[in-house]
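For anyone still unconvinced, we reproduce a single protein record, the chain in one-letter code, the fold tokenised, and leave readers to judge:
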Amino acid sequence: MSQEINCFEIVQNLIDDCVEKLGLDRTVAEILREPQRVLSVSIPVQMDDGSIKVFKGFRSQHNNACGPCKGGIRFHPDVSMDEVKALSTWMSLKCAVVNLPYGGGKGGVIVNHKELSPNELEQLCRGYIRAIAPVLGADMDVPAPDVGTNGQTMGWMMDEFARYRGYNEFGVITGKPIIVGGSLGRVEATSRGCVFTIRQAAKATGLELKDATVVVQGFGNVGSIAARLLSREDGCKVLAVSDSTGAAYDPNGLDIAALEKFKLETGSVVGFPGSKNITTEELLQLECDILVPAALENQITGENADKINAKIVAEGANGPTTPEADNILAKRNILVLPDVLANAGGVTVSYFEWVQNQYGYYWTEEEVNERLERKMVEAFDSVYSLYKEHGDINMRGAAYMVAIKRIYEAMKIRGWLGNKA
């Protein structure tokens, strides 16, 4: 995460602005500005060479007025306490935007997971869960995968928590493999939810998706699946994609299936046959109908926002656009689908997984996707209608206002606000 742009301060300022616009008491902002609990832990891991290495980890639980905390676990070198606090706050807002009975949580470990062996990674996963186990539970705090974690890591974590509890509690972790209580459709959920919001935005703005041009920053799980769905199901032309090694560009459109296979074999999108190598900065400035930033935070800033040449920016990542950039894009009539709406498909299907775990009854992938579409369409419509109604706010402001109003109602009913309600 950029050292110059603090994501936690960004989300705090946005909360302040939206509480004021909603006419709510300042107490609401004071409560929502800080997480209810932040845990900092040290995790000793025996490495394959016999040495002991101590890793630093965090878990932030932002607000549980609407239900148990919910949010991913990130393994990345740039993880910090402020980052997980910001991400847990975003999760509270995200869950409220799609009207889920959850509050926000987020965890992380400072590590480059690519440098660990499978055994070292497993030991780190188990050590992290042991360290935060007292604050976890299906009715307390439910983690999920994030950057640097996946179904396998969730399987190890769920198993470690079962050892801690002395019995299986599948609902404590979501994003698990199917055989141990995972949900069909979960792997594609974040990307599919993003695509559902893009479709609604296209309808609202009169954009024809057939042959619409798309640029995707980040070709990990979210970006690659979004590119695949948009090209295969909507007939879009994906002009360029990037990963941590560089970017591949083809003005005639990339063959996404072939590109996915190429990256699997080589570990990079750079050098894909028939494509031109460009920088990530050049990729962000390509003329296109839809730009999907699906990498990390603070990618579209005040320095490059005036060079963005898209009609719609759909945030597959968390916090890819800074407030200064948001204002510039709004003035240029570029519609930004904010992260708390556009990438809420992941937590929505995590919620479905949690429900299925609680019931012990599992849905078909078609049922999961149908339910996801309903949730995303309802969320988009509530945010877009408020955006159009106010006129002086952007889509991010509208999404925050929808979310904060719902969390406020929950806190009010529970008596958290005293006589200030």
User: Anything to note?
Assistant: The chain has 14 helices and twelve strands. Residues 189-339 form a domain with the Rossmann fold fold (CATH 3.40.50.720).
